[in-house]
User: Fold this.
Amino acid sequence: MAGTQPIKIAILAMGGEGGGVLADWIVDLGEHNGHIAQTTSVPGVAQRTGATIYYVELYPKAQAERDGGTPVLALMPLPGDVDVVLASELMEAGRAVQRGLVTPDRTTLVASTHRVYSIAEKTALGDGRADSAQLIAHAHAAAKRFVRFDMAQAAEQAGSVISAVMFGALAGTGVLPFSRAQFEATIERGGVGVKPSLKAFGAAYERAGTDEPDVAPAVVSTLPVKAEPRDARVRALLQRIADDFPVGAQPVLIEGVRRLVDYQDPAYAALYLDRLARVAQLPADGEPLLLLETARHLALWMSYEDTIRVAELKTRATRFERVRDEVRVGDGQLVAINEYMHPRLQEICETLPAGLGRWLEGSGWPRRLVERFTRKGRVITTSSLRGFLMLYTVAGMKRWRRGTLRFAAETQRIEQWLAQIAQAAAINPRLAVEVAQCQRLVKGYSDTHARGLRNFEALMAAVQRAGAALAPATLRELRDAALADEHGDKLRATLARHALA
Assistant:
């Protein structure tokens, strides 16, 4: 029939997700079932790992013979001219929509709803994650049909890879003129990982045919109020929360106590509750928001990331188990884990006893000697005995953390922040909430921590200068400006605009 168009399929996948295998399967499917097939790929960068657009066009061989020649097939997808888009991750689906490859008049979009966060999302001073709900909403509006579910989870459950799940989802949509048996025969011809691939394919095939989106599971607290820890000191802390704090705030306080017991010990968690007991007495207009926000951010601040904490996390058994699960280590296989470490002179001084740390910071040749040895980072293989023991020794310094220079500095900053919250609450409880939320700026370690702390101190200075004249919305605007860029340019401009510089 004159005017027959090829079937046009675009695949957006990141490195290691089998996008090339999926494209090859589609080509093989077409060629074994009466179609001429062509595939191309264009690599790119997704700020997570290498991202590639694979493009496949299929054209009926019988139609080509009737037309008396070989069809001319395109090398790249064009906006508004794609029948099927397969995206291995939700942001990749968003990229396809942004490029105009997904249109409501013709495109079936098949996408996994899991996220692999980009570098920009991970390094943002605040919560830099893209809103998954908005991505899904835009994709739904842009596509003729949108099939979505967590394909990474489905692949893991089947012991396969995400490309097999996407292939099954493609078959389940029914948009291609091939039967399920023809799809499955394609996998069998590949001859590699056939059984788990067919299992993943079958699950995805059934799932895609339902047209039902993922439903987020209910969030269940991992430490409910009724939990009975073995340690009597921890049980006493939980009882104190139940007796002395509002019911609505108790889940947050329980999580804070759990975090700080893990970070240091029950006595440190008791200090957390002591500080919150003072906050609970502040004017709050009858709302628990001030206590809730302070409790959440105080727990984060008191569990600051120092070299001891980093070493402890990198030597935990759960970390090794997670790495082995992520790379899917088989029986008899060995895994080498290399950690890149670059402690600066400041981190070394902060890990030492306060007096010794201050002396080293202000010394002459001892300081220069340490700087010489810390100028470059080093790789530590934590899966080796030597590398593991190095970090395990640093993690063991946890028992002396209270005497370190960093602990003294953070304690002083926390108390000043709590005093600022109290002063603001006396003026306007809503302003006190905004002051509490400014702690979002203080996170991470090394340069990230230094930049965030500098912006935080600029905001606290502005609060002191403005006093009762500062509106809560203005402080919120300043905080958003501080989170907008790591160099503080937008914050300085906003401070100048409000005459608070």
